[in-house]
Amino acid sequence: MRNELDDLNEIIVNTVLKNIPKNIKPVFYLMELLKISRESVYRRLRKDIPFSVDELTKLASTLNFSLDEIIEGSNKERIFFDLGLQKSGSSGDSFSEMLQLYSVYINNLSQSKNSNIFLALNCIFPLYTVCFQNIFKFQYLKWIVGTQEDFKNTFSNLTIPEELSVLRKKVSEEIKMLCDSTFILTPNICLSIIKDIQYYYQRKLISKDDLEILKKELLQFINAAENVAKTGRFEGGNSQMDFYISIPYINSNTVYFEYDDVSEVHYWIYPNSPIMVKNSTVSNIHKQWLLSLKKSSTLITQSNEILQVDFFDTQRKLIGKLTDDHHIGNIYK
């Protein structure tokens, strides 16, 4: 009599075989990848013994399939999620790994025949700061402070590693080639970064001169975003970018990807790394929520010029208070 374990083993074997390239013999492929004998491979394929957790993890990583595929087939009440935590010992390296991960996503989305991306944002999404050196440096500062207990540096003295600097420029070019994107924005999207910058100023990690530098570049950021809203395109890019202003409150940044047969959701509950879910059921639920949120929002890309002007003027007013001592610590006034 078949039991739940038999069903799970069959799903695992079918998933592995489905994802091995068709021009490669599965037995030889598994022997080489897992460093096991031919007989050991056959025993696993016959389901005499199961793949170990380490073997299954290596297969999922190498063949690029989600363990959720297996869980969905055996128990729909369970899903896996990835905290997006990096293995590097230093926080600087982990920041680079996070950026490299998104570089892979950008290229997968760009090269796919059918791809789309939805973003619901209540603050400036860190990935889109790569085109602005000092705002990016501030994001790096936040990352370092959040991951180092004994951090004693300042914004002025903080040096971006050369490898990270090269990666930033690379991603800033790649992002222009990103597929069609839908952005659903909170009306005061700049408020969060303004409050963060002022907090670090009060901690004396940012100087008055630094505030002026960041203020100038934030205004450049908003000018660039306004140009996208007017044209529907990144400068030098080909894909459509639609901005919507949300009426309902957006609790945290979330990103939904779909390309080829892949769908995935990233929940940016923490500022340093996303919670990543590859479960298709969860992804679809979140997509439906995003579509519902879109219906409750107002398009400002290439339309609704009055709301468009009002939105960007609001962001400029918030940025204008960045260097105003009267408003530091109380940006709402």
Number of strands: 8
Mean pLDDT: 85
Question: Unreliable segments (pLDDT under 50, ≥5 consecutive)?
Answer: none
Write the CATH fold name of the largest domain.
Endonuclease, Chain A
Q: Tell me the major beta sheet.
A: 8 strands, mixed
Biggest β-sheet: strands ordered side by side in the sheet: 1-7-6-5-2-3-4-8
The 3D shape can be described as globular
Please tell me how large the radius of gyration is.
23 Å
Q: Give me the secondary-structure category.
A: alpha+beta
- By CATH, the architecture of the largest domain is named 2-Layer Sandwich
Number of domains: 2
Number of helices: 12
Produce a short descriptive summary.
Helix content is 51%, strand content 12%. The chain has 333 residues and is an alpha+beta fold.
